[in-house]
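Feature request disguised as a bug: please show the residue count (176) next to Phosphoglycerate mutase family protein in the output. Example input:
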Amino acid sequence: MLFFIRHGQTDANLNRLNAGGEWDVPLNETGMAQARAFNETNREFIEQVDTVFVSPMTRAQQTAELILKGHSKPVEVVEGLREWHLGEWSGTKWDEVGDYFTDRLNPPGGETMAAFEKRTIDNLKYAAGQHAGRVLVVAHGGLWYVYAALAKHKKLLIDNCQSEEICRLKLNEVVL
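Example output, currently without the count:
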């Protein structure tokens, strides 16, 4: 089984700012509390995790560390799990740019939507293929959205410190 957890809240999330892969913002107090709460309320789930793959970004690293506290799990940092590189949009208000996911917009000076989709799927497939047991991915809302949209998952958006299952079969059916 493959599970995905979005990092905890950051000040960028709170202030509705686009925090792309080039803006490495840490968790705020709420985000740290969310990750600690996940750890406390999901101990059995965490105990059953065999391995963890995490984005190199601070907010994902902090989330993984806090949700895994008290559990000894192998953790692999995967560069390809970094959030979408938003170029000139990074740091702007959400409302200024529009819905770049559903409108399939390419950020000026950033990573194209097609490149981000390919990177996301390739790296989720990598994580899924490294271990046959329970795999946990700790990453970003953008990566979740790409998987969910391409795999036709019922839930396109994921809240901070929320987890969802990724169906390996559906993931493997995604061809770019």
